Amino acid sequence: MTGKGNTKRSGRMMAVGLCAAALAALSVVPAQAHGASRPAPHWQLKDSGTAARFRGLAAVDRDTAWLAGSGGTVLRTTDGGAHWRNVSPPGAGDLEFRDVEAFDARRAVVLAIGEGEDSRVLRTDDGGATWTETFRNTDTKAFYDCLAFFDRRHGLAMSDPVDGRFRILSTHDGGRSWKVLPSAGMPDALEGEAGFAAGGQCLVTSGPRDVWLATGGGARARVLHSADRGLTWKAAGTPVPAGDPARGVFALAFRDRTHGIAVGGDYRADQASPRAAAVSGDGGRTWTSAAQPPPAYRSGVTWLPHSRTTALAVGPTGTDLTTDGGRTWRTVDPGSFDTVDCAPDRACWAAGEQGRVARLEP
After folding, report:
1. Can you name the residues that pair with 116 across neighbouring β-strands?
2. pLDDT at 181 over 90
3. How far apart are CA 331 and CA 348, in angstroms?
4. Distance, CA of 356 to chain centre
5. C-alpha radius of gyration, the chain, whole number
6. For residue 228, what are the CA distances in angstroms to 160, 211, 260, 266?
């Protein structure tokens, strides 16, 4: 896929003060701003202390989050973003980190993307004080895009097609070792089809065995689903525009094994992105265009925890909110973010270019 270096590359409404009416007032404010009364929910910017572009984000909880980005940069906070510790792996300055999966404040796995040996996986067990490289790609035809974990032990990574099929890596020990899965259960890729390493959400899981893979670049933007941890896959077309290396599904979010949202479009700023979102109610077997999609390309999406209807999507031109399960979206903030993630304790984080990182407040 062209331009990979710049564009390639889980009931109730949100409880304790969050509701649809309040989320409609979402806005970005500086971290040091204070109001006389309790403010409406808003993105509160945090000073990351760097200008790196963060496309990898893992929200552990309200206090703890990990960022992975350009120039081999990895940051970690354990105090809600008041301070960020640079825990970048030594000698990683030439790597492009595009995904990070964190299990807690000490254990995390990061993915570097690129052709051949530029695609690597590293793991830390001590909060980033030390790192171990656990996978380095030696196939010049492979280009890894995203990581996803089912639990603390089992996870997958995906590569663009090799010999006509997407390649899947598997780990059963929390990312300490990896093996390439057989390709017999993977459908043939379309001509020009690939994944986008744009926000760490082109591969997502729900529950102990279900995983979905997003594609673009081919004649159709597709979503591939596996119910057996990546051994066998079925492909489904989506209404998100494709037919160009810059178009397709960039990010997925499933709130359970049935209900999913896909977002994407055309990443080029001078190109329109109609039908840039779709929804599925059958585990990704079929997809329907959002009746009112986001107005532009979006590279990240997440369900708000414990909500059946509310989700956020982000991209370079803003944040969008849905309160009806992805059928209609409205822009609630114009700030640029590349990725978004929410933790089980209902804390949501977003990150993007020029070191931008924010947490949803209150």
Report:
1. none
2. yes
3. 17
4. 16
5. 18
6. 20, 8, 18, 31
- In this structure, what token pair is assigned to residue 97? 């980190």
What are 225's two structure tokens?
A: 């689903």
pTM: 0.91
Tokens in use for 222?
Answer: 């597709």
Task: Give me 169's structure tokens.
Answer: 């890596």
Closest CA to 217 of 1, 3, 5: 1
φ and ψ at residue 22, rounded to 5 degrees: -70, -40
- Calculate the CA 237 to chain-centre distance: 20
Report d(CA 20, CA 264) in Å as an integer: 23
d(CA 269, CA 114): 23
* pLDDT per residue as tens digits for the range 14-52: 333 344 444 555 666 555 444 445 556 789 999 999 999
Nearest Cα to 279, choosing from 254, 312, 297, 246? 254
Q: What are the pLDDT digits (tens) for 253-275?
A: 999 999 999 999 999 999 999 99
